[in-house]
Amino acid sequence: MGKISLAAKVTHVPSMFLSELPGQHHGCRQSAIDGLIEIRRRCEATGVDTLVVFDTHWLVNSGFHINASARYQGIYTSNEFPQFIQNLAYDYEGAPALGDAVAQIARAKGVRIEAHHVDTLELEYGTLVPLKYINPDHRMKVLSIAAWCPWHELEDSRRIGEAVREAIEASGCNAAVLASGSLSHRIHDNNEAQAGIHTISNEFYRQVDQRVLDLWTQGRFGEFTAMLPEYARACHGEGLMHDTAMLMGLLGWDKYTGKAEILTDYFTSSGTGQVNAVFPLAA
Ligand SMILES: [Fe+2]
Protein backbone atom coordinates (compact mmCIF):
# COMPACT_ATOMS: atom_id res chain seq x y z
CA MET A 1 0.00 0.00 0.00
CA GLY A 2 1.46 3.33 -1.02
CA LYS A 3 0.96 6.73 0.51
CA ILE A 4 1.35 10.45 -0.09
CA SER A 5 3.55 12.03 2.55
CA LEU A 6 3.66 15.57 1.24
CA ALA A 7 1.73 17.74 -1.22
CA ALA A 8 2.89 21.23 -2.18
CA LYS A 9 2.66 24.09 -4.61
CA VAL A 10 6.22 25.12 -5.45
CA THR A 11 8.01 27.86 -7.30
CA HIS A 12 10.55 27.19 -10.06
CA VAL A 13 11.69 30.74 -10.83
CA PRO A 14 15.07 30.71 -12.61
CA SER A 15 16.09 33.76 -10.57
CA MET A 16 16.92 31.21 -7.84
CA PHE A 17 19.97 30.41 -9.96
CA LEU A 18 20.88 34.11 -10.20
CA SER A 19 20.48 34.28 -6.43
CA GLU A 20 23.27 31.76 -6.02
CA LEU A 21 25.72 33.68 -8.19
CA PRO A 22 27.88 36.59 -7.09
CA GLY A 23 26.66 39.97 -8.25
CA GLN A 24 23.65 42.23 -8.17
CA HIS A 25 21.05 39.56 -7.44
CA HIS A 26 23.03 37.45 -5.00
CA GLY A 27 20.75 36.15 -2.25
CA CYS A 28 17.57 37.64 -3.74
CA ARG A 29 15.70 34.32 -3.81
CA GLN A 30 17.13 32.74 -0.68
CA SER A 31 13.67 32.48 0.88
CA ALA A 32 12.40 30.54 -2.15
CA ILE A 33 15.43 28.25 -2.07
CA ASP A 34 15.01 27.72 1.67
CA GLY A 35 11.38 26.69 1.13
CA LEU A 36 12.40 24.04 -1.37
CA ILE A 37 15.17 22.82 0.93
CA GLU A 38 12.59 22.51 3.71
CA ILE A 39 10.47 20.33 1.42
CA ARG A 40 13.56 18.20 0.81
CA ARG A 41 14.09 17.89 4.57
CA ARG A 42 10.48 16.80 5.08
CA CYS A 43 10.73 14.28 2.25
CA GLU A 44 13.80 12.79 3.86
CA ALA A 45 12.21 12.78 7.32
CA THR A 46 9.16 10.90 6.05
CA GLY A 47 11.05 8.47 3.79
CA VAL A 48 9.63 9.76 0.51
CA ASP A 49 10.99 7.67 -2.37
CA THR A 50 9.07 9.14 -5.34
CA LEU A 51 8.38 12.71 -6.47
CA VAL A 52 5.43 13.34 -8.78
CA VAL A 53 5.66 16.75 -10.48
CA PHE A 54 2.90 18.61 -12.34
CA ASP A 55 5.06 20.63 -14.71
CA THR A 56 3.67 23.92 -16.10
CA HIS A 57 6.62 24.21 -18.48
CA TRP A 58 5.70 21.06 -20.36
CA LEU A 59 3.39 22.32 -23.10
CA VAL A 60 0.96 19.82 -24.59
CA ASN A 61 -1.51 20.78 -27.28
CA SER A 62 -3.67 17.67 -27.55
CA GLY A 63 -4.35 15.10 -24.88
CA PHE A 64 -2.65 14.85 -21.49
CA HIS A 65 0.78 13.29 -21.22
CA ILE A 66 3.03 11.60 -18.69
CA ASN A 67 6.77 11.11 -19.06
CA ALA A 68 7.03 7.53 -17.80
CA SER A 69 10.64 6.93 -18.75
CA ALA A 70 12.61 4.50 -16.61
CA ARG A 71 15.37 7.08 -16.43
CA TYR A 72 15.71 10.77 -17.16
CA GLN A 73 19.19 11.84 -18.09
CA GLY A 74 20.53 14.83 -19.96
CA ILE A 75 21.98 18.30 -19.99
CA TYR A 76 19.29 20.99 -20.09
CA THR A 77 19.41 24.48 -21.51
CA SER A 78 16.12 26.36 -21.50
CA ASN A 79 15.03 27.41 -24.98
CA GLU A 80 12.70 30.01 -23.43
CA PHE A 81 15.19 31.50 -20.92
CA PRO A 82 18.63 30.48 -22.22
CA GLN A 83 20.15 33.43 -20.39
CA PHE A 84 19.06 31.93 -17.04
CA ILE A 85 19.27 28.14 -17.35
CA GLN A 86 22.22 26.65 -19.19
CA ASN A 87 23.84 23.23 -19.14
CA LEU A 88 21.93 21.90 -16.13
CA ALA A 89 22.96 18.25 -15.89
CA TYR A 90 20.37 15.83 -14.52
CA ASP A 91 20.08 12.12 -13.92
CA TYR A 92 17.00 10.78 -12.18
CA GLU A 93 15.46 7.36 -11.94
CA GLY A 94 11.91 7.44 -13.29
CA ALA A 95 8.73 5.78 -12.03
CA PRO A 96 7.38 4.04 -15.16
CA ALA A 97 4.95 1.68 -13.43
CA LEU A 98 3.40 4.53 -11.48
CA GLY A 99 3.12 6.57 -14.68
CA ASP A 100 1.33 3.73 -16.43
CA ALA A 101 -1.01 3.28 -13.47
CA VAL A 102 -1.92 6.99 -13.40
CA ALA A 103 -2.72 6.91 -17.12
CA GLN A 104 -4.78 3.75 -16.81
CA ILE A 105 -6.82 5.08 -13.89
CA ALA A 106 -7.31 8.50 -15.48
CA ARG A 107 -8.44 6.92 -18.76
CA ALA A 108 -11.02 4.94 -16.79
CA LYS A 109 -12.29 8.31 -15.54
CA GLY A 110 -12.72 9.47 -19.13
CA VAL A 111 -9.51 11.50 -19.54
CA ARG A 112 -7.59 11.28 -22.82
CA ILE A 113 -4.10 10.68 -21.45
CA GLU A 114 -1.01 8.68 -22.41
CA ALA A 115 2.09 7.54 -20.52
CA HIS A 116 5.21 7.55 -22.68
CA HIS A 117 8.33 5.40 -22.52
CA VAL A 118 10.54 7.34 -24.90
CA ASP A 119 14.18 7.89 -23.96
CA THR A 120 14.39 11.12 -25.97
CA LEU A 121 11.35 12.69 -24.28
CA GLU A 122 13.15 15.20 -22.08
CA LEU A 123 12.20 16.90 -18.83
CA GLU A 124 11.25 20.56 -18.69
CA TYR A 125 12.39 23.10 -16.16
CA GLY A 126 9.19 23.09 -14.11
CA THR A 127 10.48 19.70 -13.01
CA LEU A 128 14.22 20.27 -13.15
CA VAL A 129 14.49 23.54 -11.22
CA PRO A 130 12.64 22.49 -8.02
CA LEU A 131 14.35 19.10 -8.10
CA LYS A 132 17.75 20.75 -8.09
CA TYR A 133 16.94 21.77 -4.51
CA ILE A 134 14.52 19.02 -3.44
CA ASN A 135 16.34 16.02 -4.91
CA PRO A 136 19.99 17.11 -5.23
CA ASP A 137 21.42 13.68 -4.50
CA HIS A 138 19.01 12.04 -7.01
CA ARG A 139 17.82 9.67 -4.29
CA MET A 140 14.12 9.94 -5.09
CA LYS A 141 12.47 8.62 -8.24
CA VAL A 142 10.69 11.17 -10.43
CA LEU A 143 7.47 11.16 -12.43
CA SER A 144 6.75 14.24 -14.56
CA ILE A 145 3.25 15.06 -15.80
CA ALA A 146 2.55 17.81 -18.33
CA ALA A 147 0.59 20.73 -16.86
CA TRP A 148 0.83 23.48 -19.48
CA CYS A 149 -2.48 22.64 -21.07
CA PRO A 150 -3.85 25.60 -23.06
CA TRP A 151 -6.79 23.86 -24.71
CA HIS A 152 -7.79 21.52 -21.91
CA GLU A 153 -10.58 21.39 -19.33
CA LEU A 154 -9.62 21.94 -15.69
CA GLU A 155 -12.11 19.20 -14.83
CA ASP A 156 -9.89 16.68 -16.60
CA SER A 157 -6.90 17.85 -14.60
CA ARG A 158 -8.94 17.42 -11.46
CA ARG A 159 -9.52 13.79 -12.48
CA ILE A 160 -5.81 13.33 -13.19
CA GLY A 161 -5.11 14.50 -9.65
CA GLU A 162 -7.58 11.93 -8.34
CA ALA A 163 -5.90 9.29 -10.49
CA VAL A 164 -2.47 10.21 -9.13
CA ARG A 165 -3.73 9.72 -5.59
CA GLU A 166 -5.36 6.37 -6.41
CA ALA A 167 -2.30 5.14 -8.31
CA ILE A 168 0.06 6.10 -5.49
CA GLU A 169 -2.16 4.47 -2.87
CA ALA A 170 -2.34 1.25 -4.91
CA SER A 171 1.45 1.23 -5.41
CA GLY A 172 4.26 0.61 -2.98
CA CYS A 173 5.40 4.22 -3.28
CA ASN A 174 5.88 6.76 -0.55
CA ALA A 175 5.32 9.87 -2.64
CA ALA A 176 5.50 13.63 -2.52
CA VAL A 177 3.42 15.49 -5.08
CA LEU A 178 4.56 18.91 -6.33
CA ALA A 179 2.47 21.36 -8.34
CA SER A 180 5.25 23.33 -10.01
CA GLY A 181 3.92 26.69 -11.11
CA SER A 182 3.25 30.24 -10.11
CA LEU A 183 0.14 32.01 -8.88
CA SER A 184 -0.58 34.90 -11.29
CA HIS A 185 1.74 34.70 -14.27
CA ARG A 186 1.61 37.83 -16.39
CA ILE A 187 5.32 38.21 -17.16
CA HIS A 188 6.46 41.81 -17.71
CA ASP A 189 6.46 43.30 -21.16
CA ASN A 190 9.89 42.83 -22.67
CA ASN A 191 11.25 46.31 -22.11
CA GLU A 192 10.11 46.26 -18.47
CA ALA A 193 11.60 42.87 -17.70
CA GLN A 194 15.12 43.72 -16.55
CA ALA A 195 14.01 46.46 -14.18
CA GLY A 196 11.08 44.33 -13.02
CA ILE A 197 12.82 41.20 -11.83
CA HIS A 198 11.34 41.67 -8.33
CA THR A 199 7.96 43.25 -9.14
CA ILE A 200 4.43 42.27 -10.18
CA SER A 201 3.19 43.33 -13.62
CA ASN A 202 -0.12 44.70 -12.30
CA GLU A 203 -1.35 45.37 -8.78
CA PHE A 204 -4.60 43.55 -9.57
CA TYR A 205 -2.72 40.26 -9.83
CA ARG A 206 -1.02 40.73 -6.45
CA GLN A 207 -4.33 41.50 -4.77
CA VAL A 208 -6.00 38.39 -6.20
CA ASP A 209 -2.99 36.20 -5.39
CA GLN A 210 -3.03 37.38 -1.79
CA ARG A 211 -6.74 36.68 -1.50
CA VAL A 212 -6.12 33.19 -2.86
CA LEU A 213 -3.43 32.61 -0.23
CA ASP A 214 -5.88 33.77 2.45
CA LEU A 215 -8.37 31.16 1.22
CA TRP A 216 -5.67 28.48 1.18
CA THR A 217 -4.40 29.23 4.69
CA GLN A 218 -7.96 29.40 6.02
CA GLY A 219 -8.91 26.06 4.43
CA ARG A 220 -11.60 27.60 2.21
CA PHE A 221 -11.23 25.35 -0.83
CA GLY A 222 -14.92 25.36 -1.77
CA GLU A 223 -14.50 29.04 -2.55
CA PHE A 224 -11.09 28.60 -4.13
CA THR A 225 -12.13 25.82 -6.52
CA ALA A 226 -15.23 27.85 -7.46
CA MET A 227 -13.05 30.77 -8.54
CA LEU A 228 -10.19 28.73 -10.04
CA PRO A 229 -11.32 28.84 -13.70
CA GLU A 230 -11.83 32.61 -13.66
CA TYR A 231 -8.64 33.15 -11.61
CA ALA A 232 -6.62 31.12 -14.11
CA ARG A 233 -7.87 33.24 -16.99
CA ALA A 234 -7.96 36.70 -15.39
CA CYS A 235 -4.50 36.36 -13.80
CA HIS A 236 -2.82 34.46 -16.65
CA GLY A 237 -2.25 31.39 -14.50
CA GLU A 238 0.91 29.53 -15.44
CA GLY A 239 -0.05 26.59 -17.60
CA LEU A 240 -3.61 27.88 -17.14
CA MET A 241 -3.20 26.54 -13.58
CA HIS A 242 -3.59 22.92 -14.55
CA ASP A 243 -0.92 22.05 -11.97
CA THR A 244 -3.15 23.57 -9.31
CA ALA A 245 -6.25 21.77 -10.60
CA MET A 246 -4.34 18.47 -10.50
CA LEU A 247 -3.19 19.20 -6.94
CA MET A 248 -6.71 20.13 -5.85
CA GLY A 249 -8.06 16.96 -7.46
CA LEU A 250 -5.55 14.92 -5.50
CA LEU A 251 -6.47 16.68 -2.25
CA GLY A 252 -10.25 16.33 -2.67
CA TRP A 253 -11.15 19.53 -4.57
CA ASP A 254 -13.84 21.52 -2.74
CA LYS A 255 -14.06 18.90 0.04
CA TYR A 256 -10.46 19.48 1.11
CA THR A 257 -10.38 21.29 4.44
CA GLY A 258 -6.67 21.41 5.26
CA LYS A 259 -5.05 24.76 5.94
CA ALA A 260 -2.08 25.47 3.71
CA GLU A 261 1.23 26.15 5.40
CA ILE A 262 3.27 28.86 3.71
CA LEU A 263 6.95 27.87 3.59
CA THR A 264 8.05 30.83 1.47
CA ASP A 265 6.07 34.03 1.81
CA TYR A 266 4.46 35.38 -1.34
CA PHE A 267 6.97 37.13 -3.56
CA THR A 268 6.86 38.73 -6.98
CA SER A 269 9.31 37.80 -9.72
CA SER A 270 9.54 39.12 -13.28
CA GLY A 271 5.91 40.20 -13.18
CA THR A 272 4.52 36.99 -11.64
CA GLY A 273 3.31 35.94 -8.17
CA GLN A 274 5.10 33.06 -6.44
CA VAL A 275 4.91 30.96 -3.28
CA ASN A 276 6.00 27.69 -1.69
CA ALA A 277 3.06 26.19 0.22
CA VAL A 278 2.45 22.76 1.74
CA PHE A 279 -1.04 21.25 1.91
CA PRO A 280 -1.50 19.06 4.99
CA LEU A 281 -2.79 15.56 4.35
CA ALA A 282 -5.20 13.66 6.56
CA ALA A 283 -3.45 11.02 8.62
FE1 LIG B 1 7.52 29.08 -14.95
Automatic annotation (TrEMBL):
Its EC number is 1.13.11.15. Residues 7-279 form the Extradiol ring-cleavage dioxygenase class III enzyme subunit B domain. GO terms for molecular function: 3,4-dihydroxyphenylacetate 2,3-dioxygenase activity; ferrous iron binding. Gene3D superfamilies: LigB-like. Keywords: Oxidoreductase. It comes from the Bacteria. The keyword ATP-binding does not apply. The keyword Nuclease does not apply. InterPro entries: HPCD, Xdiol_dOase_suB. This is 3,4-dihydroxyphenylacetate 2,3-dioxygenase. It comes from Pannonibacter tanglangensis. The lineage of its organism: Bacteria, Pseudomonadati, Pseudomonadota, Alphaproteobacteria, Hyphomicrobiales.
